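I have been asked to look over a protein record a colleague put together. Alongside the sequence sits a line of tokens, each denoting a local backbone shape. Please read both lines and tell me whether the tokens look consistent with the sequence. Take the sequence as given and treat only the tokens as open to question. I have pasted the whole thing underneath without changing anything:
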Amino acid sequence: MCAKFIGVLHLIPLPGSPRWGGSMEDVCERAAADARAFAEGGADSLVIENFGDVPFTSERVPAETVAAMATVASYLRQVAEIGLPFGFNVLRNDPLSGLGLAATCGGEFIRVNVHSGAMVTDQGVIEGQAFETVRKRQQLCANVAIWADVHVKHAQPLGGGSLEDAAKDVLHRGLADALIVSGVATGESVDADDLRVVRQACPEAQIYVGSGASTDSAPRLLEFADGLIVGTSVKADGILDQPVDPARVAALRAAMDRKRM
């Protein structure tokens, strides 16, 4: 079985954010260029993120953010004709907006940074909303998967608690459909031991690497993970604010495929 390659579309700043450039056309065209690069290089699906909207809120995002992300998704499918399936990650932690986007735009999954428990983040304390999220999913789009982080990056668990116990809670009590394990920050490598702990705690789970995967680290990480969510390492020269490089995507895809042969 081939490991899944999920490419991250880091959207440039959207309307209302401090660095908004004033043109949704620019936002859509940049997203489409990155999406084409992922498709050309062999990615399996995409996740659309409002990555350029720093600083993020710990609560619901504004209406204009949701509208802009829906515009991008529509552009990718109807104008750019990107055939890859996609999901949404509404930063910092707005799964309800993510579900609304998935329901109306044809998304297949949402990523939730804090699904259960509580994390101390640069936005303050964020508490999981599994109760609301799972019920809203049932109302709007029961077929949309919930991919949830375990001890998400840029955060620390409030009150401690082991990675093993957190993974079990997210899967069994939060009813997540997949678990995501990341490094400490965007683009930072995942500790393979953390992946091993989560795999041993939840052997039946779908597990994805959420940051820092590269052609060098992919074989090691895929010992325990079912796929990679990748953004930074496949940008030109591996620089976060650069466009996605299809050659780097293809190189990572090849490394993943060799591991699974």
Notes: The chain has one domain: 4-260. Residues 4-260 form a domain with the TIM Barrel fold (CATH 3.20.20.110). The two ends are 8 Å apart (CA to CA). DSSP finds eight helices and eleven strands in the chain.
